[in-house]
Amino acid sequence: MTKPMETPFTAACIQMCSGRNPQSNLEVAADLVRQAASDGADLIMTPEMTNIIDSPRAAVAAKVQAEEDCIAAAKFAELAAETGKYILAGSLGVQAGNGKLANRSLLFAADGAVMARYDKAHMFDVDLPNGERYRESSTFAAGDKAVFADLPWGRLGLTICYDVRFAYQYRMLAQQGCSFISVPAAFTVPTGTAHWHVLLRARAIETGCFVFAPAQSGTHEEGRKTFGHSLIVSPWGDVLADAGDVTTGIVMAEIDPAKVARARGRVPALTHDKVLSIADDVSQAAAE
User: Fold this and answer.
1) Would you place residue 127 in the very low, low, confident or very high pLDDT band (cuts 50, 70, 90)?
2) CATH number of the domain that 283 lies in?
3) Domain that residue 283 falls in
4) Catalytic: 288?
5) Structural domain includes residue 234
6) Distance (Å, whole) CA 228 – CA 185
7) Catalytic pick from 13, 17, 48, 70?
């Protein structure tokens, strides 16, 4: 790509409470995208599973298509071309063609072309103390590639939700030249309350990247409760925007790409990696 512009731009994170009807979800998302574009956003991002949140697996599978036939993907391409903005469909449920679905993030250029696609790599399989049970791997095929794309202002790395707990992925993206990292999510309320802000600020600080985290929020039709608090975080770890717990809304912030180099200059940790061996006395004790 040509050298990115050092001029500031405006990023927008959309907060939603997606339900069981993909068409209804798309109508809400489209209205919010158009509003963000009208308000001056240059890069507009939606949450994880923008097009549908439903269960069980069969209910989701019956309502989504392969990407080439996906009404949501087509709609976001249309919105990008209509508004002339870069749009990240935070993630969409699409048929993966292998008996499972993909939890796929799609980045659209301002002319509507797909710039990048990323399938969520880390699956959230857990039994929570409150009785909630999640088995993403039973529904979704995990991705196995790190993905980034070059925007006019710098390189954007794509991640989704549970990925945020795996710091190595973010470090890899930063060391591949990313200045911004997206984390569309549908965090549960218990884990969101405890960890959401801490994890996102940590990933920003560790990498010296801006972090964009559009989120699902509220009580969904199938009963799930998500945390909300769509965030935009600076490379120094400052929260530039927080949507709180509203079910539908937009947060925006002006992004100065020059702050990435300044943060990394003050703490150049990305250049200080070191491979450690296990101490002999520890390895011997473990063997015994």
Assistant:
1) confident
2) 3.60.110.10
3) 9-287
4) no
5) yes
6) 9
7) 48
Residue with tokens 């989504």: 64
Full strand arrangement of the beta sheet holding 239-242 = 147-151, 154-158, 178-182, 210-213, 231-233, 239-242
Mean pLDDT lowest among 82-91, 126-135, 154-163, 240-249: 126-135
The count of structural domains within the chain is 1
Spatial separation of the C-alpha atoms in residues 26 and 181, rounded to whole Å: 24
For residue range 4-20, list pLDDT tens digits in order.
Answer: 667 999 999 999 999 99
Question: What's the confidence (pLDDT) of residue 138?
Answer: 85
| The pLDDT value given to residue 5 | 65
- Residue the block writes with tokens 């990394």: 264
Instruction: Flag whether 227 is in a domain.
Output: yes
Is 160 part of any domain? yes
- The answer to the question of residue 4 being in a domain is no
DSSP 232: E
Of the candidates 70, 75, 120, 178, the residue annotated as catalytic is 120
Verify whether residue 161 is a known catalytic residue: yes
The model's pLDDT over 30-80, given as tens digits with 9 standing for 90+, comes to: 999 999 999 999 999 999 999 999 988 888 999 999 999 999 999 999 999
Cis peptide before 56 (omega within 30 of 0): yes
Q: First vs last Cα of the chain: how many Å apart? A: 54
Active site residue 222: no
Q: Which residue in 13, 17, 161, 209 is the catalytic one?
A: 161
pLDDT reading at 286 higher than 80: no
Would you say the C-alpha torsion 213, 218, 221, 224 has a positive or negative sign?
A: positive
**In this structure, how many other beta carbons lie within 10 angstroms of the beta carbon of residue 125?**
12
